[in-house]
Design brief:
single chain; globular
Length: 92
C-alpha cells in the first residue's frame, strides 16, 4: 500500500467517485490499496483533480498521480513525506 522512495512516498489507492464527501474509508486488504471516496464525478479529470487536492491538504505536501489516471486504482506520489509520516497522517 505504501512504497518509500528517495524523495517521498508512493501511495496505492482505490478511488470511489461521486461520494457524499471526500474521505479516507480504509484499506482494501485484498488489493492492498487505500480506499478514498471523492465527491467529484470521474468526468474530464475532475475526480483526479479533487483527489490530488484532498490528499495535498491531508498530507501538507505536493501530491501527483503517477499511474492510473483513467482507472480507479491509482499510484499517487506524496513528495517529501516518508512512509512513517504518511502512515501516521492516515492513522494506520
Amino acid at each position: 500500500m505504501l512504497e518509500e522512495m528517495e524523495d517521498g512516498t508512493v501511495l496505492h489507492v482505490i478511488v470511489v467517485p461521486n461520494a457524499k464527501k471526500n474521505e479516507i474509508v480504509g484499506v482494501d486488504e485484498a488489493r492492498r490499496r487505500l480506499k478514498v471516496k471523492i465527491r467529484a464525478p470521474p468526468v474530464e479529470g475532475r475526480a483526479n483533480k479533487e483527489l490530488v487536492s484532498f490528499l495535498s491538504k491531508l498530507f501538507g505536501a505536493r501530491v501527483e498521480i503517477l499511474r492510473g489516471e483513467k482507472s480507479r486504482e491509482k499510484d499517487v506520489f506524496v513528495a517529501g513525506k516518508s512512509v512513517d509520516e504518511v502512515r501516521a497522517l492516515l492513522h494506520l
